[in-house]
Amino acid sequence: MKRLIFTMIVAASFSLYAQTATEKSRVITVEDAVVLAADNNISLKRQKITLDSLDKRNKTSWNGVSPSFSASGGLNLPLGGDAGAYTYSFSGSVRLSLTPSLYTSIKEARLKYESGKTSYEDAVRQVELNVRKLFYNLLYTNESIALQKRNMETARLRYENNRDKYNRGQLSELDLLQSQYSYESQRPTIESAEIAYQNNMASFKQTLGIPQDENIELSGALSDAIPPETFTVTQTVEALPSVKKIQTSIEQQKNSLLSTRFSAYGPTITASYSYGKQGSSRTEGLETTGNVIQLSLSIPLDGFLPWTNGALNVEAQKASLKDLELQLENEKTTASLTLQNSIKNILQKQSQMEMLNRNVEIAQKSYDMTLTAYNHGSRDLLTLQNASDSLLKAKTDRESHIYNLICAVLDLENTLGVPFGSLGNE
């Protein structure tokens, strides 16, 4: 009973899928997918909000030199004695403070915006990288399923032919059962691959920010994305995004160190002006209570003492700067090795393409010759099945190799920070 219910559910699911598949599909190329992801991806929208906030803070970072204004007023009504007597007053003031930290705060806002802009661009590139890999993975999976279906169709035709031979007494029951098993044993593998394809397609739609119930059709083939056999890498290590990111962190840390020094040693100049009036019910006119300009200068001395918090904070900032400089040197070495290994990996995969193409040709020729011999009775069914399996493996290995080569080139382009698809097309 449980198996019957499960079968009905699966049948209904595939029926619904078949029904939606008959609806008009939206054709999407890899470039269309990149544009959709850039416009609709939720993660990028959140990153853009953060970047806009940093941009607004950067544009208003000068507000530290803006004076502060205040105004106040009061009314006093006595509760005892002469109830008709009252006093009133109002006053206003303006205050301006100048400190060396204003310079570092303005620079900090600019550096944070530039860092945020770089982070946003990195996020856009990461989304594009994921989209392209998902797109080509779907193409690869689709090609693999198509190969398996063609192999299954061949096995089905062979089984039907053997069944006719068996009915005519020209084939043993054992050979018939072997051909039947060879045909039917492929169905679970194909169904599992189709479910995996649907799951990957759902992730792909989520990345693109399009509804899950929208039907899409991928336009393109893995063979169209095979990179050129030769390419040139002209970027220096210093120009790599991973190295530039640490260099930006060093600039921020230098500014933070300067700000800490200003806080420990820097003077503060303060200028203020206040003005006030007061009056009462007993007097005529207003009396001036404040018309004062005040200037002050303060210089912190704790920073000159090595055991104070100010001096210790400066030393901590110096240590952080030194650590980042060491990270930069290490990243240059690591990035250089990664770059060399990526290039070697791509060149190796490119050199193996000719061998894989030759393997497919050999496997195809072997299968054709074995099929002819089987039809003439000089080869058994097991030999034919082995030849068919070898052909399917050769084709699948070639498609898998092409997909891995495309991903390796995409990773290299991401490491270099160059536009995707530009490597070898200079």
Q: What is the CA-CA span between the terminal residues?
A: 64 Å
Question: Sheet bearing the most strands, described?
Answer: 4 strands, antiparallel
Strand order of the largest sheet: 2-3-5-6
Number of contiguous helices: 9
Unreliable stretches (pLDDT < 50, length at least 5) are: 1-22
**Number of beta strands:** 6
Beta-strand residue fraction: 5-15%
- Quaternary: single chain
> CATH class, please?
Mainly Alpha
Mean pLDDT level: 82
Radius of gyration: 38 Å
What is the total domain count? Answer: 1
What structural category characterises the helix and strand content? alpha+beta
Corresponding CATH architecture: Up-down Bundle
CATH topology: Outer membrane efflux proteins (OEP)
CATH homologous superfamily classification: Outer membrane efflux proteins (OEP)
Overall, the morphology is: elongated
**What series of H and E elements makes up the topology?**
HEHHEEHHHEHEEHH
Helix fraction bin: 55-70%
Q: What's this, in brief?
A:
The protein has 426 residues and is of the alpha+beta class. It has one domain (30-416): Outer membrane efflux proteins (OEP). It has helices at 2-21, 30-40, 42-59, 101-167, 173-184, 187-208, 241-265, 309-375, 381-416; strands at 26-28, 68-76, 87-98, 216-218, 268-280, 287-298.
Structure description:
The chain has helices at 2-21, 30-40, 42-59, 101-167, 173-184, 187-208, 241-265, 309-375, 381-416, and strands at residues 26-28, 68-76, 87-98, 216-218, 268-280, 287-298. The chain has 9 helices and 6 strands. The two termini are 64 Å apart. The strands form 2 sheets. It has a 4-stranded antiparallel sheet with strand order 2-3-5-6, with no helix packed on it. It has a two-stranded parallel ribbon with strand order 1-4. The chain is an alpha+beta fold. The longest helix is centred in the first third of the chain and has 67 residues, at 101-167. The protein has one domain (30-416): Outer membrane efflux proteins (OEP).
